[in-house]
Design brief:
The structure holds two protein chains of two kinds. Chain A is mostly helical. Chain A is built from 21 helices and two strands. The chains are: A mainly alpha, B mainly alpha.
Chain lengths: 506, 158
């Protein structure tokens, strides 16, 4: 048997490589602890499970933070299977905070008869989803990438079907069928890329430029379709509204942020390699990857915001808005500059916060209307809860992207990054993306503002079976989220300074 | 281009040819030497000693599905154990890595087996392995004739 010497390299550097995996190892331990707690503990199960999960995620956040401080430049490890840079570690922190929010919402949710927090499987799936989305941007090998995409998808399907009712199964089966098709297409694309470059390493794409690039760009196109499925962008977004309608709200808080941003960061890595290798993405002549992604971003932004106008179910409305925000973030990927990356991460942080607030609101409304998330449940609510009315109005302003909220700063920074790129390159596609973004923000005004409008200007429906009694904890969570959004407006440079220091070398 | 040895794919071809020959040889000799006296009993489909009824496209209880899943779990484990066993503690690899190879191979396989075993533990504790039988519930029958009528009837018979 002849052994290539480099195959054995990971064995010698194993203990050193595992150092880079510290936050993930903490999550893995937390996963198994939750698993055993679910099986063994009988008394006070909900309390035990939720405190174990929360402490696990807090420990993970601490290790990510130390990693964030310790890491200086991009590193490749596990014999180039994985890579790590500071932007990825920053995203780990966002995901961790989002998971904390999802767990807190899960504690508040009633599952079929018992609270959702009493089911160990749910925590297991949430933490597994976190683990997968943390690892995905680190992938530097097509097989590792595919494995993590599947990991994310499968946990996603299970979380979507967790409500165990008709709409939940409907959403999950749509998600599953779409996901299976997307995975198959993506795997075929990966095999084409492997055939053309002869290497499983994603970084080696840049060396494939002398080859006949027709098949290579076809392979890349198929891989992009798989990534677009995860971000839920234009051709691959059809599953999303049904899945969001059926899934438990606490699950979507994580499901709509973590896999999306993880896939976007991976897309960033991939496009920077395409750009570096000057791979002619020439399926059609005169058609670079910028044009393709730009056109898809434009269609996604306009289409999703137009579709959201007709929704009367709050969750479906938020689902379409999530597709739209995905389009905005895709426009951020187009810039491919250091400033562009900072703005993208800023947008992702603001989006994660807003989403948490929105689904907290959905949970409150669900209590009121007995499991129907109809938008009419907001009628006249402000006369009952004036403070909630103010908070919701601010939250919706942030979704639209108006001052004085973090949503405004996020969109403002993202658009200025796109404008900068336009000034440098002079490609007309950037100005089109810019215009489409502005126009779709105007469209989004109508459906986001519907909620505060119903709250303030419509009379209270007196035939309501039950009026919402808001606990002070609900107010506190909502208040904290809105305050955080306001801080991101008034002191946006705090976060931007951190983000700008991420890739000093770029 | 004539080699003295068979290549890796050549071995597979030999296996195929050998397999086909073995089966054909067995069936042919059986056909030649066996007596042939068919009757209806012999010609029915074999169904564990039962008379086959209806089509094979009937609905199965979903409980079979869970048992099949658990079976697949350990079947897959076995499939992975065989190739692992051929490289585990490989002399050459052990020398190249200074003994680390065996340890890492062992730890990896133990982790794999433990994860699969945890799946079984989960099923067991959650009670998915219990073969739940439907409890027979007595049929409630409300007679339109009042009970007094019965007792009167019995009295009259006495």
């Amino acid at each position: 048997m002849e052994i290539q010497s480099n195959i054995l390299d990971p064995i010698f550097s194993l203990s050193q490589d595992l150092n880079y995996f510290r936050p993930e190892l903490v999550l893995l331990i937390c996963l198994f602890v939750c698993f055993f707690a679910d099986l063994l503990i009988k008394k006070n199960k909900g309390l035990w499970l939720s405190s174990l999960a929360i402490s696990g995620v807090l420990a993970y956040l601490w290790f990510s933070y130390t990693q964030f401080i310790g890491l200086e430049e991009e590193v490749y490890f596990m014999s180039d299977l994985m890579r790590l840079e500071r932007s990825i570690v920053f995203v780990k922190l966002i995901f961790g905070v989002t998971t904390l929010g999802a767990i807190i919402l899960a504690i508040k949710t009633k599952w079929i008869q018992i609270p959702l927090s009493h089911t160990g499987e749910y925590y297991f799936m949430l933490i597994a989803l976190l683990l997968g989305s943390v690892l995905l941007p680190m992938a530097n090998n097509w097989l590792v990438f595919f494995l993590l995409m599947e990991f994310l998808s499968i946990t996603g399907y299970i979380i979507t079907s967790f409500n165990r009712d008709k709409s939940s199964y409907e959403g999950a089966i749509k998600y599953l069928l779409f996901g299976a098709a997307a995975s198959a297409i993506m795997l075929y694309g990966i095999s084409l890329i492997y055939g053309m470059t002869g290497s499983m390493s994603i970084g080696d794409l840049a060396n494939g430029m002398e080859l006949d690039s027709g098949l290579l760009s076809l392979g890349l196109l198929f891989v992009l379709l798989g990534i677009f499925f995860k971000i839920a962008l234009f051709p691959m977004h059809v599953w999303l509204p049904s899945a969001y309608q059926g899934a438990p709200s606490s699950g979507i808080v994580l499901l709509s942020v973590a896999p999306k941003v993880a896939a976007l960061l991976f897309l960033w890595h991939l496009t920077s390699i395409i750009e570096l290798g000057k791979i002619g993405f020439d399926l059609l002549p005169m058609f670079q990857w910028q044009q393709m992604i730009g056109i898809l971003a434009i269609i996604t932004m306009l289409g999703a915001n137009a579709a959201a106008l007709w929704q009367t179910n709050v969750k479906r409305l938020l689902a379409w808005s999530s597709v739209g925000h995905g389009g905005f973030m895709l426009a951020g990927v187009l810039t491919l500059s250091a400033f562009g990356q900072s703005t993208l991460l800023f947008y992702a942080s603001v989006y994660a916060l807003m989403n948490m607030g929105a689904f907290l609101l959905v949970l409150l409304i669900k209590k009121r209307t007995q499991n129907e998330e109809d938008i009419n449940a907001f009628r006249g609510l402000a006369s009952l809860h004036p403070f909630l009315g103010v908070l919701v109005t601010l939250l919706m302003l942030s979704f639209i992207g108006l001052p004085p909220t973090g949503g405004f700063m996020a969109k403002f920074l993202l658009f200025s990054a796109i404008w900068d790129t336009y000034q440098q390159s002079g490609e007309p596609i950037y100005i089109w993306v810019f215009a489409a973004g502005l126009f779709s923000s105007v469209i989004s005004l109508f459906y986001y503002m519907k909620i505060p409008y119903l709250m303030y200007f419509k009379p209270l429906n007196s035939k309501d079976p039950k009026l919402v009694s808001l606990k002070s904890l609900d107010y506190l969570m909502m208040f904290l989220i809105v305050v955080a959004l306001m801080v991101l407006f008034f002191k946006a440079n705090w976060l931007m300074n951190i983000l700008n220091s991420l890739n000093f070398a770029l | 281009m004539i080699h003295g040895e068979v290549s890796e794919f050549g071995i597979i071809l030999l296996f195929l040819i050998g397999g086909i020959f073995f089966v054909a040889f067995g069936l042919l000799t059986a056909r030649l030497i066996r007596p042939k006296r068919p009757n209806i009993e012999k010609l029915t489909t074999y169904e564990s000693g039962e008379d086959p009824l209806g089509t094979a496209w009937s609905q199965f209880n979903t409980r079979f599905y869970i048992i099949a899943l658990v079976f697949i779990l350990f079947e897959v484990e076995l499939v992975f154990l065989f190739p692992w066993a051929t490289v585990y503690a490989d002399q050459e690899l052990m020398e190249l890595t200074g003994g680390k190879w065996g340890m890492i191979a062992l730890v990896e396989m133990v982790a794999f087996v433990i994860i699969l075993a945890l799946g079984l533990v989960y099923l067991w504790v959650k009670g998915f392995l219990n073969w739940e039988r439907p409890m027979p519930t007595g049929k409630q029958y409300y007679s339109p004739i009042p009970k007094i009528a019965y007792s009167k009837f019995i009295k009259r018979r006495k």
